[in-house]
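Backbone geometry tokens:
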Amino acid sequence: MGMLEFCIVEDGGDATYVSIPRGGPIYVPDMVGPLTRVPDFESVVFHQLQDLKAEVEELSSDSLEPCGEDISVDELKIITEEELVNKAFKEAFKDGEVGNSSQVPEEHVNAGRKDDSRISSHEHACLESLERERDGSTSIVSSNGSPLRTGDNQELSEDTLKKRKRKRRMNQKSHTLNGSYIAKVEQLARIKQKQDENKAAARLHSFNGSCRINESASIFSEKNERVTSLKSTSSSTKVRSSNTSEHVPLLYPDVSLCVEVYHNRRTSAKTQEFLVLGRQFLTELRDKIYCLTDEVMKKAGQHDSSGYFLIEDLFCNDLREASAIDYSEPILNWLKNSKNEALEKWECIVSGELQQKQKSILGSDTEPQLPKFKAVDMHQMRFCDLKFRLGAGYLYCHQGDCKHIIVIRDMRLIHPEDVQNRAAYPLVTFQVKLRFRKCSVCKIYRAEKVTIDDKWATEHPCYFCGLCYYMLHYENGSLLYNDFSVYDYHHE
């Protein structure tokens, strides 16, 4: 479940902020969900949580079961190439055929550790030639191994002959030793290769003993994804807590609904967003919705407390005040008295004008049916009593003909990180930023008046701060002309 950071700042007083989770796994952007109800959602999620809990317990119990084949640590040990070479040397030096390792020169041992390939006879010949050149002389040796001449064409001394014989014996031993430890290295390499093959097919104790490692890993990954899809992210939502001192504990389990309210004219602009509880009344949400039309009507002394929510086929009328009007009554009367016209309009809304024309030409066996609209009192309806579709646009109407689209965007169970005070709901999680125009004359102060058809104004409508308006339109406290309309300016 995703989360969002947002806070609402109101004038006056210090604000305290709390973090709440946001979002849920069932919302698909740009899509409308099937018809559902809050109790149905609670039941489905409850059973899914029970199934998930059973799967986690089963997975935990399976991880404790021993495998059918026990594998020792030595069999799973990873052997490096350097360890193979060292082990080959130790085994080669212990072999009686090669002799004591103390007789092997250190330079040959180091050379053997660095080079794992066989040394060809040509390379040995090159090494012997280099050693002879290092002595500073060249000699011609007869078939029986006795020297014929030196670099100075003189007989070699007896000590020189002994040194050369000793060097030939060392070369022979070195050649024998090279072949022995290389064979050992190849044998250990084959052992290591077999160990790698065995490890690839090994079954570890931490996985289910009835399946291979790859199958266990895939099953665990699928179950883990299902668990993490229901977890919250690390980010948090910050909203202003309620000003009320009353504390009403939440009832569990309860559902939180995310409700969006859009602008009455700019229908794609979201103005507010709320978190409401499934057991709350619709009137509690209506009292929190802010619209500039309400402020204007109050200022004009013509405020109307009437209004309704149209959700699916249900008109939820606000009739709490005695002066309230049932807005749905003329609509229901029209549906009853003009059924054919209403059916035609409804078909156009549902199928589109083009399909309606095609149907009139080609004909159709199926006739559309009007929904069975009915009216209820808003203050008696809870969100858990409604049938709705996630992502679908519904209607909120007030002040006669000021209409807003409302969308129930998401639905989830109450989280421990949610605000635990029921009196704080509906909780505002988004509020559009208020924008104020500046005075069109001074371009400094915020506008307080707006005029229309003002002959001395540079634009229509024209916005004025209090000082500029009176300087332009008044002299000695009297209005200079009155052939224009003036209104108090409110923020947009």
Summary: Residues 158-200 form the longest helix (43 residues). The mean pLDDT is 74. The first strand starts at residue 17 and ends at 20. The radius of gyration is 45 Å.
